[in-house]
Structures
1.
Amino acid sequence: MKTEKDSRGTERLIERLLQSSALLSVFTTLAILGVLIFQAADFFLEVSIIEFLTDRRWTPLFTPQHFGIMPLVSGTLLVTIISLLVAVPVGLGTAIYLSEYAPDRLRRIIKPILEVLAGVPTVVYGYFALTFVTPILQVIFPEMIVFNALSAGIVMGVMIIPMVSSLSEDAMLAVPNYLREGAYALGAKKHEVALHIVFRSAFSGIVASIILAISRAIGETMIVSIAAGSTPRLTMNPLESIQTMTGFITQISLGEAPYGSLEYQTIFSVGLTLFILVFVVNIIGNYLIQRYWRQY
C-alpha cells in the first residue's frame, strides 16, 4: 500500500504536469501572437494603419496597390453571418429535440450520425458547395455567379451544426431534473419547460457553443477558398464573389508573392487582424457566459 508521503508526491507530480500543460497552451498562444506582431510590424512601417483600416480597396498584388482590409473583413463577416443563420436555428432545434423530446434509443442513433458532419474534410464541403449547392441556388437566383458567398455560407453553416447542437445538448442535459419536475408540477407544458426552464438555465452553455461556432466559421479556409471566390469586394450582397481573410492568406501562401516582399508581409497583417477579431468575439462570449451564469 502507498504511504501518505508517496500519495502526496504523486499528487504534486500530477499537479505539476497539469500546470505545465496549461502553461504550454498559454505560451503557444503568446508565441503565435508575438510572431504575428513582429512580422506585421514590417508591413506597417510601409503602410499606415489609417490606410489599412479605412481604405475600401484591397489590391496588394496589382498596380496601383491598395491595402484596405475592409473588403476582406466584410467578406469574412458576410460568410460567417450566413453560416450562423443556418447553424444556430437548426443546431438549437436539434439540441432541444434530443435533450427534451427524443427517446434514449433514438438519441443514441441520431447524435453519432449528426456528429459525422464534423468529421467530413472541409475540402469536401467546399466542392459540395461549388458543384451541388451553387447550381441549385442559381435556379432560384439566376443572376448568381459560380463563386459566391451564399453557397459557401450555407455549407459552412451545415458544417458547424454539430458544434452548436452537441454542446448545447450537453448544456441542456446538465440542467437538474428537479427544475423540470417543479415546472411540470406547476402545470407547465413540455414546450414551456424546454424553452423557459431548460433553455434559460443552459443559456451560458448555449452561448459558449455559438461563440465556438463563430470562431470556427471566421477561421474556416477551404470552403471559402473553393466556393466563395477570390475577389476582395466591400459588399454585403451574398450573390457576389468575395474573399475572406483566410482565403487571402491561402492565396498568398501558395506563392502569389515573393518571400519577404511587402505583398508577402500582408499575410501577417491580415493574420493579426483575424486574431484580434476572434479574440474580441471570445471576450464578448465570455462576458455573456459569465453574466447569464450568474443570472440563472
2.
Amino acid sequence: MKLWSRAKSAVRNLFRKPQVESQLDDEIRACVAMMTDERIAAGISASEARRTAQAEFGGVEQVKQAVRDSRAGAGLELLWQDMRLALRQLRKSPGFTLAAVLTLALGIGANTAIFTVVNAVLLKPLTYPDADRIVKLVLPSFFGNSFWSSIPEFHACQRQSKVFEQIAAYDMWGPGFNLTGDRPVQIHGIHVSEGYFRLFGAPVILGRTFTPQEDSPNGGKFVVLSYTIWQRRFGGDPAIIGKSFSLGNEPYTIVGVIGKGFLADPKADIWLPFQFPPASNDLNPFFQVAARLRPGVTQLEANDELKLMAAQFRRDYDVKDWKDLRFRVEPLRDSIVGSARSSLMILLGACGLVLLIACANVANLFLARATGRKREFALRSALGASRMRIVRQLLTESVLLSAAGGILGSVLGFSGVRALLAFSPAGLPRIGENGAAVEVDWRVLGFTLAVSLFTGILFGLFPALGASRTDPISALKESGNRTGTGFRQGKARSLLVIGEVSMAMVLLIGAALLIRTLIALHHVEAGLDAQNVLTLEMALNGERYHKTAGVAQLSRDGREQLNAIPGVEGSAAAYNLPITPDAQPFQIVGRPVEKPAPWSPYIGASPGYLSVFKIPILRGRDFTVNDNAGAPGVALINQAFANKYWPHEDPLGRQLAIGKGSSMPMYDTEPVREIVGIVGDTHNNGLEQNPAPEILVPLAQFADLMTVGFTDAVPLVWIVRTHGDPHQVIAAVTEHLRVASVGFPVGHIRTMDEVMGTSTARERFNMLLLTIFGVVALVLAAIGIYSLMAYSVQQRTQEIGIRVALGADRSGIHRLVLWQGMRLTLVGVVVGIVAAFGLTRLIASFLFGVQPWDLEVFVSVRLILSAVALLAVWLPARRASKLDPMQALRAE
C-alpha cells in the first residue's frame, strides 16, 4: 500500500507543481525496484520478481501516457474556462468589442487582400509537371536581355542534350486566327514545336499532338484544339478527330483535343505546328523557348554549358561582332512574374504597416480597459490566481477578438480585392481576366489564421503583462475612479499613438508620391490625339496575305469602306500602334556599317495614319497612295531620330537601309529608303520614357518576306477617327471590314483612350491600393489620438475639476489638452518623416515626374495629418473645458 501511495503521490505532484518527465521516471523506477526487492525477499527469483513488479505496476510508459492524457484533459478544461470567461467579459463591453473587431478587420482585411494577389502571382505553383525544373531561355541576340529567340538559336539549344531533358518553342502572342465559315470569329492561337505538349504536360483527351513529321517544313496543315473551343464551337463532338475546319479560308485537320485542366501561358484556343526549317540561318527573334533541366543539373551548371554554346554559335553563324552574346536560363516562374514581384512586396509591406497601426489602436483600447479592471485583477490575485493565469485570460480575450476580426477581415479583403481588380485591372501576370484567378485556398486561409493569431498575441501581450503586475493591496485600496492613470503615466499608450502617427505618415507620403506619378503620366503629352479613335485588330491568315500586294489591296479596300461610314472622319491600317511599336535594325546609307546594327522602333502604316492620330508633320511630306511597290522606297522619321543621327544637318533626302548587316533573310529584298518627312515625337517606349528614335514606312512598300514576318507575328490594326463617340460606329465598322476582307472578323476592339489606360494600369493599381491603405491609416491614427485624449480627460476629471474650482481659465484647460495631444502628433510626424526619407527610396523605381523626397508631398502630408489630428484632439479638449467642477469633484 505504501508503494501505491507513493506512486499516486508522484502523479498528483505533477499537477501541483511543475516537474519534468525525468522526475516521473525516477519515481516509477524506484517503486518498481522496491516491489522487486519485496518479491525476492519472499523467495521469488529475481527475473520473475522484476517481471511481475513491472506488470503489476502497469509499465513505466503506460503510467507516463496516463499522466500526459490527464494533463491534456485538464489543459483543455482550463482553456474552455478561459474562453467562456473571455466571451462573458466581451459581451459586457459591446462597444469595446465592436470597435476592436472592426479595427482588426481593417488591418487583417488589407493583408488578406494583398496576400490573395501575392498568392496567385508569386506562391501558387505552376500546374506543369516538375515545374521547378522548367526554365526559360534568355537569348540576348539584339536587345540585351530578352526572351526572344531565333530558329538557329533554338536548334543550337536543342543540341544541348547534357543540359536539357526536353525543349520547346512557342509564340507568346500572335495575330490570332480567323475561324471562317457560317459564323466567322477571331480566336487566339499560337505556334508551337512538337515537344511543347510533353514539356508542359498537356493532357490529351482526344486524338494526339503533333508528330515530328507534321512539325517539319511542308508537313501539312494540322491543329490541336483546346477544351474550351472544342466545347464552344464543336459542341464537344467526340468524333472531331480527323475532321477539318476553316482557318483564314484554308482547311486544317484536327488531330487532338487538350483537356480542360491545362492552363497554357499564353492562353490559346488552338495550337499549330511551327514547322521550322532545319537549316535556317534566319536570326530574326520571334518566339520564346522553354526547357526542362535534366535531373541533377542545376541552373548554374546549365548556364556554364550555355556559355560554351554561345562561343560555338558565334563561330558557326559568323556573328563574331556579337561579343556580348550570352545564353542563359532562368526559372520559368521568374520570367512569368517579372517586375510584379517588387511592386507586390512593397504593397504587402504597406498593408503590414496598416496592420501594425490597427494593433496599436487595439492595444491602446486594451490598456485602457485593463486599467479599469485593476480591482478585478487584484481581487483574483488575492484569491490565489497566479500571474500567468491572468496573462492567459487576457490573451484568450485578445485572440478571440483577433479571430473575429480575422473572419470579418478575410471576407472584406477578398471581396474588396476582387472588386478592385474588376474596376482597375493591374496588368499583373497569373491573375486571370479581371482577377478571376485570385481565389481563396489553403495558403490564404493559413495566412489569415497566422496573422490573426499573431495579431491577437501582439496587441494583447503587453497589456496583459502590465495588468498582471498589479499590486493587489494598493489596487484594492483605491477607489474606482482613482485606479486610472494620468496623461504622464500613460507612457505606453502615448508611444503607441506616436507609432500610429509615424506609420500613417509613411503610408500617406508613399500614396501621395504615387498620386503625383499618375497625375504626371496623365499630363504627359503623348504626341498624338487619342480622343474619338477606335482600334480593331484583324488576323491576316492565308497565302494571300503573305504577299505585300494582298495586304496593300486590303488596306485600300478597307479604308474606302470605312471612310464611307457616316460619322467617320478618317481611317488607316498599321502594324502596331504608336505606343507599342515593333523594332527593326537599320543602317544609314553613306556611313560606316555598324555591327551589330542599331535598332529603332518601327511602324508600317497606310496613308492617313498621321492624320488619324493628328501627329504633326514637322518637315517634308506624308505618305500618299503613290508610295506603292512600284515607287522608290520612302520613310518618315520622328524628331528624336533626326536629333540623334543628324543633330546639325537636314535628314531630308538621306537614305536608310532597313535590316542591312543583320543576317536576316527577311531584309534581303528591302529597298533603300529615302527620308521624305520628319514627324512629331510620340512616347513609343511608354509614357514614362522619353520618345525614342522611330521609323515609319508605307505598308505597300514592304518586301514580301517582311510582310510574312509581320502577318505571322502581329495583327493588322485598323484605326478609325470618328466625329463623336467611337462606340457608336463599332457595328458598322466591323461589317464593312468583313466585306472588305471577304469574311474576316475583327477582335480586341478598344478605343485609343483604353489602350493608353492599359499602359498605366500597374501604376494606377499601385496608387489606388496605397491610397486606400493611407486613408485607412489616417483614420486609425485619428481614432487612436482621439481615444487616448478622451480617456486621458476621463481619468483626469477630478484634477480638471479642481483646476477650474481654483480659478483656472477654461480656455487654458482647452489649450492644455490640445497641446498634450498635438505634442504626440508632432513627435509622430517627425519620426514618420525621417522613416519616409529612407523607405520612399524603395518605390523610387515606380515614380515618374516626382522625386522620392518631393518637398510639396512631405509638407502637404504633414499638414493633412496634423489637421486630422487637431480635429481628433479638439473634441476631448472641448469636453474638458466644459466640465462642471462640482460634478467633477463628486465623481467617485
3.
Amino acid sequence: MDVPAHRAVRRSYDVGMVSGNPHRPGAARWLVPALAGWVAGTAIQLTQPQLWVYWLYVPGMLIGAGAAVGLFMRQAFSMPHALCMVLATALLAFGQVGVRALAFQARALEPALEGRDLLLTGVVASMPQSSSSGLRMQLHVESAHAEGLPVRLPSRIQLSWYLGFGDARHNASSNTLPTLWAGERWRMVVRLKAPHGNSNPHSFDYELWLWEQGVQAVGYVRDGKGHPAPQRLAQTWRHPVELARQEMRQRIDARLSDSNHAGWISALVTGDQNAIARADWNVFRATGVAHLMSISGLHITMFAWLAGRLTGAAWRRSARLCLYVPAPHAAVVGGLALACAYAVFSGWGVPSQRTIWMLAVFCLLRLSGRAWPWPVVWLLAGVVVLLMDPWAWLQAGFWLSFVAVGVLFATDDRGERAGSASVWWRIRAMLREQWLITMALSPLVLLLFGQVSVVGFAANLFAIPWVTLLVTPLAMAGTLVAPAWDLAEAAIGVLAGYLRWLAQLPFATLSVASVPVWVGLGGVVGGFLLAVRLPAPMRLGGVALLVPVLLWQPPRPPVGQFDLLAADIGQGSAVLVRTAQHALLFDAGPRFGRNSDAGDRVLVPLLRALAVQLDLLVISHSDSDHVGGAASVLAVHGHAQLLGSLAADHGLWQLRRGARCQAGQRWVWDGVVFTVLHPPAQSRLQRVKPNATSCVLRVSVSGGAGRQKAAALLTGDIEAAQERQLLDNGVLLQADVLVVPHHGSKTSSSAAFLDAITPRVALVQSGYRNRFGHPADVPMARYARRQIGVFDSPHCGAMFWRSAKPSEVICQRLEELRYWKHRLPDK
C-alpha cells in the first residue's frame, strides 16, 4: 500500500456505499474495536527489545481469540464490551506477531559459522544486481558444509561476488564475472555473517529491511587461490518469474544500450530500481516523484483499473458469460488478478504486496456489496496489510499511502461529483486531489525524511499523468513490440528535462531537523486539519500544529562546551564535533562503490536530521575509508571550508579551496579551542605513507567559571612512529575521550602514547567483522590494563560524547534496541 491511485480506491468505496446491503448491526458494532485492537497489539509487539518464549505468546493468543469470539457472540454491546474487544484482539495480534518472529529468528545464522569458509550449494533466487564492484544476489541454500561436515544455514542469504576480489580466478584478463541467471544452481565457497547495518540517529533500518525480505545472512563469494572455483551445476526451473524479469531487463538494455534512461524503463517494467543512476534518484527526491520510478501502489492500482476496464469490456461481448457472472464483477476480479500478476513480475516487493492486499479488501467489499462508513473501510485495509506484514507498521511507504487514502476518504466530494462530469470539473478535481495530498502529506514526509519537495506539487501534476498514462503503458507495450521502448525513452527525456529544471531551483526542497515523535504527530494532525473541510478556526489550529515542525531545533551544547558524535559508517572514520554555533566534520567515511559512499548514504542525512550546517570539513589523510564521502558532503554543504592532509594534486582541492593540515594551526569557536598537533609543516605528503601524515586534532575547553575542563583527541590513522613523534615534540596530549588511532590497529595505541593521554573513554570506528581484524587484541589489552572504557561501532553504533559529562558515552544501538537488530555479545 505504497502511493495509491486515488480515484480507483474511491471508486471501489463508492460502489460499496450505494449497494444498499449492509452488515447486520450487531456484527458491525464489533468491527471497529476489533480492528483498533489489532493495530494496537501489533504496534506494541514491535516495540519489544527482545522476543519472549513461545509459552508466553501462545497462551495470550488463545486467551485473546477466545475472548474475542465470546464477545462477538453476545447480543449486548456497550463501551466496556468494546474496550474488552480492543484488549482481546490486541492480545491476539501481539501473540501472533511474536510467534511469527520467533519462528523466523529460529532459522538465523549460528554465530559459530560467521567468518568461516563454507562450501554451499544453492539456487540463485533473485535477479542478480550488477555494480562497479561486482554482483549482488539472493541465494536459496540447499546444502552447506564446513570443513567437510554438514551445517545448517538460513534458507535465504544475500551474497556479493566482488570483481577481482581475493585474486579471483574468473576471467582475469577481461576482469569480468560470469553471467549469473536466476534459477541457476551453483556450488561455491562463501563467508557469511549476521545482517548488521549501520545504526545512526534517524537512519534507515537496514536490518529490518532484510528481515522483511526474509534474508538472515549476508556474505561474499570466496573466489581466489586455495578455494574451489565457483561451479555452475544446472539451470533449474525454480524462480521462473525472476528469470523472466532478468531476460526482460537484458532485452531493454540491448535495445536502449546508448540511452541514459534505460534504467528508468527497467525500473517501470521489472522493478529493478538499482538500474537508475544515483544522480537521477537525487532529482526524483528533490522533486517529490520518487514514487513514480518504482513499482508503487500508483502503478499497480492504475494497472488494476485499466485491466478491469478491458476485462469488463471483453466480458460484455459474451452474453453467456454475463449470465454466469455479471460483467462488473468479472472486471473487479480480472483487474485484481492481472494487477497481482504485474506485482509478481515486477519483483513482488513489499510495497507491491501492500497494494495488492489493499486492493483485495476494496474488491471483496465491492463484490459483497458491503456498505461500511469510510473510517471502517480505511482501518480494515490497514489491518489486512498488518496481518500479512506486521513490520510494515515501521515502513515509511505504509504510512504515506495509508494517510493519503484517509485524507481522500475524508475530503471526498461525491455529492458535488454526482451532478457534474464535465472535462473542466474533472481537471478541477484532479488539481484538488493533488493539492490535498501534497498539503496533507508534507508534514508526514518531513517527519519521516526531514526533507520535503517544495516543487513537488508542480512536478507531480505533470509527472503523474505523464508516467501513468504514457510512459508506463509504452514501457509495458515494449515487452511485446520493442520499438515502443524507443517512444517511452523519448517521453522520459521530456519528463527528465522538466524535473531537472525544477530540481535546480534554489527553493526546490525544504529541510528541517528531525523532530520528536510528539511534535511530528502534531504536524501530521495539522496537515490533516488543513486538508479536510473544516471551519476556519480549526484550520488555524492545524497551522499552529505545523509551526513546531518547521521551527524545531535540536539542542546544541552551551557556550564553552562541545559534543562529539562518532558516526557508524562501517570500516572508516567520520566524527562530528559541535559547539554552540559551529560544526566540524573530521573525515567523511568510505566509498562503497562507484555510485555510493558514506557521505551520501549516512552523513548528509545525519547532518540534515541534526540541523547541522558544516563550517569545516577536516580530512585526516587520503585513504579511501576517510575521504570516500567527502565530495558528497561538500556538494551539499557549499559554505564548508576544507582542511586536509592531502597532496597538492588531490581531486578534493578542485571541489573546494582550503588549507593543508599542519601542526600549530589553532582557532576558537564559542569558547572551545581547536589545535592541530600533526603533521609537521615540513612533511612531504607525496613521499611517505598516507597514515604517517594523518591530521591529529585536539579539541578542548579550558574550564573556569564553574565549568569542567574536558578535551577530545582525534587521531586519524597515525601509527606508533607518529605517536613517538608527538611525544618527543612535547605537545599537550591529555584528553578525556580518544578516537582510537587507525581503528584499533596493532601498529598503533602504544603504551607510552596512552599514558600521556590518560583518556577516560576510547572510541573505535570499525566495521563489523571487517577483513582487517580491527580492533586488534594486543592494543585493546593495553586499554583494558589502564581501565579505559572502550566503545566500538559494531557494539554501539553511533557513539555520542559530551564535554559536560566526559565519562559517559551514549550508544545509539543500545538506545533503540529491537528484537530484529543484531546484538553482539558483551565484550
4.
Amino acid sequence: MKFPTIQEVTEREAARALGLDCTLTPALSTFYNYAALLGLKRKRLKGLVKRQGIRATTPNEYLHVDTTFWGLDHDLKAAIVLVSDNFSKAILGWNIALGKHAVNVVEALRQAITTIHQYHPGQVNANLVADAGGENHADCVEALLDATKDPLITKLIAQRDIRFSNSPIEAINKILKQYLRHYNPRTLPALKKVLIQFVQDYNSVRPHGTLKGLTPMEAYVHPELKPNFRKPVQEVRGIRLEENRKGNCGGCMNQ
C-alpha cells in the first residue's frame, strides 16, 4: 500500500479550503501561491538539542571506568580496563586479563587510586562513572571502594544514576583500538607492551585539542595552566605565508 506524502496531504487540505475538487492537483508554484494567500505555514521541526555530557571542573571530580576487548591468537580474548579522569582526559589506571573478570577492574582502580595519591594527595571526594556491566559491581569492587577513604569514591551508574553515558572513556577506547589495529598484538605479553606504549604516548606526548594543546597529564598535574596558543599559531601562520611567497615564481611576485 502506497501512503501519501506530507506534501500531497497538505495540497489536498489547501484544495479543500479553496473548494476545489480534491482529485485535482495544482502545480507546485500555484500551491505555494495559494498557501501564502491563505496564511498556511508548514510547521517546522525543532532541531535536536545536543546533550552535554559530564564536564568536570577539577581533576578527580569524575572518574570513568570501562572495559574493551581485543582478540588474540588461539581464539583468546583479552579484556582491557581503563580508568580515566574526566577533567584532564588522562588515563589514571589500566589492566589487562584473559576474560571479563572483576579482579581486572579492581587492579585498574588500584592504579588510579595510587595516581590520585601521588599527584593530588589532598583529594577528599571523587565520583566513579561506570556502565551496568557486572564486572563493575562485583563484591571485590565494592569492597575496594568501601575501603578507600582518601578520596571517598561514590560510584554512579551511567544512564541510571546519572543522565549521560560513559562516552569520555569510550572515546579513549577508540583511540586505543587504532593503536591495536596498527601494531596488531597477538599474544598477552605483546598486548601489554603496546598498552604501555599507548598510555605513555596518550598521557604525556600527544597534545589534546580540548585541553588547548596540553597533554592529559599536564592538565591533570597542573590544572591551573591556562595556555594561550593564539600568538604562536599566528607566528607559525606568518612563517608559512612567507615560505609560500618565496616559493612563488618571479613573474607571479611581480604581478
